[in-house]
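Quick one, T. Sequence first:
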Amino acid sequence: MKLNRFVHISLVLILLFSLWLNGVAANESVGEMLEVARKQFYAAVEDEKQIKPTIALFKRIGQMEPKYAGRTQVYIGALVALKGKHAFFPHTKLKWVNSGLAIMDSGLEKDSDDIEALFIHGTTCYHLPFFFRRRNDARRDFKAIIKYMPMQVHTYDPELITNIVVFLFENAKLTRDEKLYLQTLKDRLEPQRPVAHQ
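Structure tokens:
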């Protein structure tokens, strides 16, 4: 009787451990997929053929990992808006951009303190022509990034954070304190250069 109970408990523990390992593996694969999707996103800026598969990849990531639903929707919206860049007719360009902006805005509402979602939303708004009247949205996003950066900086790859910081330095209107904070962060993230021996 005791042996059967021991076997039963052992099987339950093995099952729980197996489920935990599968969860870890799934998280790792989602992280890897997100890294690939980011690279494809930037490739899609120049190559229209990358847009459709990248949208599909972000949709899959959002379905697999609900905590990324807002972030992935912002990326998808930016990609839909990007179709406007590649469209020929002005009314088609306008249609794609407006559709993409609506998707982006909805995604950001789901995850308004995610610095990656804020960055994609903000940079997309920043690069739009003036008549879309999205510069204030970009400024708001950049201010929010700086506000949330201290709490989230450790959850991102340092290269991504460095890219965000460099963009903000070059394009955002920053206060003296914001510049000081971002410079300190950038210095901390830059790889230590070896000292040359003489």
